Amino acid sequence: MQKSKAVKKYDVRNCLFAVLLLSYCFSCTPTVEKKYEEWSVFAGGHEGIRYSSLTEINKQNVKHLTQAWTYETGDLPEKTQIQTNPIIVDQSLYGTSPAMNLFAIDAATGKENWVFKPLFPDAKGTVRGVTFWQDEEGGQKRIFYAVGPYLYAVDAVNGTIVQDFGEGGYIDLRKDLDGDFANASVAANAPGIIFKNRIILSLRVSEGHDAAPGHIRAFNVLTGKREWIFHTIPWPGEKGYSSWESQDAYKRVGGANNWAGMALDESRGIVYVPTGSATPDFYGANRLGDNLFANSIIALNAETGAYIWHYQVVHHDLWDRDLPSNPNLITLHKEDTTIEALAQITKHGYIFVLDRLTGEPVFPIEEVPVPPSDIPGEKASPTQPIPTLPEPFARQTFGPDDVSNRTPEVQAELLEQFYKLRSGSMFIPPSLQGGFVFPGFDGGGEWGGAAVDPESQIMYINSSEIPWWTALIENPAMKRPVSKMATIKDRGEAVYLRNCIACHGVELEGSSGFPSLINLNRRYNKAEVKSIIENGRAMMPAFRRISESDKTALVAYLLDLEDKEAMPVKSSNAKEVRTRDSVPPYVINGYHRFVDKDGYPGIKPPWGTLNAVNLNTGKLLWKVPLGEFEELTKQGIPPTGTQVYGGPVVTKGGLVFVASTQDEKIRAFDKDNGKILWEAELPAAGYATPSVYAINGRQFIVIACGGGKLGSKSGNQYMAFALAQE
Fold it and tell me: Which of 71, 147, 401, 619 could tie 118 with a disulfide, CB 3.0–4.6 Å?
């Protein structure tokens, strides 16, 4: 597929003037060396580098860390999570609970100040951070956070709703998307980023055929009014429109959204936005072309939303290779040259390093030929961009020699499965035969992000190295149209096949990370199932777009209810979602981790790692296992690492703090060599990123202990550590 010059991987045409203008406008702004002593912004600051310059806790005394306080949110944790990286402002720590309540506590003691409960408690999802804003005089202080499709403005001092914001304290993020998306699944699990009097917001949307577009928007922090919008799926006449072969793609296709968070160069007024794939995942015949601005890093004018530059890291994504975290804004020193740059980690284990003013690669990036698709109508991109440097932080290939040999029996069973699937390249397109995705769907890099020491320009990143596999199947819904089903349960099965099989399987059996729905009637009643369908839960999006009669039918099918009516279900007059609701002819048969009979990863260790990469040279400095399975260690197997969720923090005191592991621990590593210097047990796994701050000179590290993934028990606590006071 020939690539148009208009859609090359980075594009600075028509924008150099804008860059020069921005540089000139801010050239008079004095350069102030940032101290990095606070944690008042998600990821530690607008640069997103997860760094603290505090040094009270260091390599010599970290072994004396002790529990300083624990805050229990009061929620009853059951199949819930806390993914929040809390912020600390004016000695108050702000975070969220498993039930999506916002709270403020004393950051020195953990004593509760107030709790705000969302106005729409049925709206669910995950909250990875909150956003603080205050006016120039400090008279108004607000916390912004989103629960489902609602963005709330809450008084930071007393926890009350700010009535004059939006519609009585909130705005509905399904509105002002330049289209009718009232029934679409929309949320904002990553926190917004503040520039002047604007909050710039990301979106999480469905990854199926019904998805809303992931346009980037800025809202006025005082009124909630939309200030600007950038179409990530370009409209006619807009830049990137020609990268879609179908002229009406902007009407039909969704996604290309930022769910991972952003970074802001505040002095230059540039916001950097990483995006995910266009929808639906895995089958792209309805969205042929490179699909800008999906899977891209986009630089926008933070005040107006105007395009500056972009770089696309995956063309025509067929592998769910969303960019998984915010970029890190850094200053590099390369060949006696100082470069203002950004570093973007990926699910497939690469780091793209770009000049943050122009988008040009700092290290060469090659367009490498990749295999074609054999699915009718599909056109995989003939090449994909691969950085020559930095060196990858995760293994890039998975072959028969990599299959786990934990025992001869395990190895034999895994090899039998291995040879049934396609392997050998991370860019093998989805097929009816099925193939491996490695690194897996959750990385490589994931939403916990990376930490960068601004003094050494060394990046620290934790990574999972777990193979996943999937296969395409002919969509059963094509042969079972909802309108022709005779009974309620029959119609419910057709609704299920249309909406649910990619995650929960054709036979309701579930797959890795997605629960089985078999015998659901033993766990939930009708009202509970309907609420989950309408509002979502954890990673499951809301399905409000389904008509009332279809919801009733789906509940009847899922709960195996008696169908006493035994007659055709009348068509609902409920409003359906646009033409985006077309059913693709192929869907995946589920997300499957490649594991052995005992549930351990089917690849030789390490299964989870912590890595250090010098961004000046691009060289991988060290790699160590992150986490362990104690039962395997007792068998004489060296620590294997575990699958990880949540990111690291690096400090001037010489330490990298990270939780994220299945063994429910938090650890401190020597940032120079990866040696473990301290570890502590948590009440539940810390699948989140720690925050580092000081109160009256005393340094704290706090982590949300929410668990709830990978079979881990759920928790409802935040735990802080500090050196014991004399």
Answer: 147
Q: For the beta carbon of residue 168, count every other beta carbon within 10 angstroms.
A: 11
Residues 154-165, mean pLDDT to the nearest whole number: 98
Query: What are 626-662's pLDDT values in tens digits?
Result: 999 999 999 999 999 999 999 999 999 999 999 999 9
Q: What is the pLDDT of residue 486?
A: 61
Q: Characterise 255 by phi-psi region: left (phi > 0), alpha (psi -120 to 50), beta (else).
A: left
Tokens linked to 123: 């709206």
User: Residue 502 falls within a domain, yes or no?
Assistant: yes
CATH no. for residue 519? 1.10.760.10
Q: Assign 141 to helix, strand or coil.
A: strand
Residues paired with 650 in a beta bridge: 51, 656
Which of 192, 84, 48 has the alpha carbon at shortest distance from 133? Answer: 192
**Domain membership flag for residue 543:** yes
- Nearest-CA neighbor of 130 among 164, 94, 90, 101? 94
Q: What is the pLDDT of residue 558?
A: 83
Cα 367 from Cα 385, distance rounded (Å): 4
pLDDT-derived band at 33 (thresholds 50, 70, 90) equals low
Burial status of residue 96 (CB atoms within 10 A of its CB: 0-12, 13-18, 19 or more) = buried
Residues in Cβ contact with 331 at an 8 Å cutoff, skipping those fewer than 6 apart: 338, 339, 340, 341, 454, 457
Rg over alpha carbons for the chain, rounded to the nearest Å, is 24
State how far the Cα of 78 lies from the Cα of 94, in Å rounded to an integer: 22
Q: Which of 344, 352, 354 is nearest to 308 (CA)?
A: 354
Residue 91, class by beta-carbon neighbours within 10 Å (0-12 exposed, 13-18 middle, 19+ buried)?
Answer: middle
Q: What is the pLDDT at residue 485?
A: 66
Model's pTM, two decimal places? Answer: 0.91
Q: Please tell me what DSSP assigns to residue 580.
A: G
φ, ψ dihedrals at 7, nearest 5°:
-125, 30
**In contact, 284 and 430? CB cutoff 8 Å:** no
Q: Cβ neighbours of residue 381 under 8 Å, at least 6 residues apart?
A: 1, 290, 315, 316, 370
**Separation between Cα atoms, residue 170 and residue 335, nearest integer Å:** 50
Alpha helices in 217-285 (DSSP H): 249-252
**What is the spatial distance between Cα 311 and Cα 292, in angstroms, rounded to a whole number?**
9
The H-or-E segment that residue 535 falls in is: helix 526-535
- In 384-450, which residue ranges form alpha helices assigned H by DSSP? 408-418
3-state secondary structure 321-377: CCCCCCCEEEEEEECCEEEEEEEEECCCCCEEEEECCCCCECCCEEEEECCCCCCCC
> Distances from the Cα of 330 to the Cαs of 95, 264, 323, 459, 611, in angstroms?
27, 11, 18, 10, 18
Q: Which of 128, 397, 424 minimizes the C-alpha distance to 260?
A: 128
- Domain encompassing residue 547: 476-583
| pLDDT tens, residue by residue, 202-211 | 999 999 888 9
Cβ contacts of 222 within 8 Å, gap of 6 or more: 164, 165, 197
- Cβ atoms 230, 171 nearer than 8 A: no
Checking phi first, is residue 449 left (phi over 0); if not, alpha (psi -120 to 50) or beta? left
Average pLDDT, the chain: 90
What is the domain count for the chain?
1
pLDDT at 563 over 70: no
Element (H, E) at 309: strand 307-312
Residue 482 backbone phi and psi in degrees, to 5: -55, -40
Q: For residue 668, give every residue at least 6 positions away whose Cβ sits within 8 Å of its Cβ, in sequence order, or none.
A: 62, 65, 655, 656, 657, 676, 677, 678, 679
β pairing state of 307-312 and 296-301: antiparallel
Task: Give the distance from CA 299 to its chain's centroid.
Answer: 19
Q: Report the pLDDT value the prediction gives residue 26, as an integer from 0 to 100.
A: 43
**Residue at 500 is within a domain:** yes
> Would 229 be classed as within a structural domain?
no
